[in-house]
Design a protein that fits this description.
135 residues, alpha/beta, Collagenase (Catalytic Domain), 4-stranded mixed β-sheet, 51% helix, globular
Length: 135
Amino acid sequence: MVDIEYIEEVPGLDPDFFLDWLSKVVNEEQKLLGDVILVLGDDEWLRSFNVKYLNHDYYTDIITFDYSTNDLVSGDLLISVERVNENAVLNGVTFKDELNRVVVHGVLHLCGYVDKSPSESNQMTQKENYYLSLL
């Protein structure tokens, strides 16, 4: 199941789209899709989670809380609508395209990928680009 919760309203998002697409992503990663919740808020809301749970006092576009077990992919993806919008403008893409990138980034974390080193970050970007190309 994929569900969307709003702290910051974003009209027109379709949970069925994310369910279909993310099911394909997780399946290609040879895992099963469990419960994934997208929670959309603003910068200050997400920054408060970044400070409280990660001791990072800065803005970010996404924080992933991973509840996956074995091959069952589950977690909460907390997303700043403001960061997604700003990054979309900076990268010359639509809000929807940037949101899709952020969401698949979070799901890849739930699948076990990390992006702490340059090579891990490069692998993650390649995976994001691949899954975005399936849309």
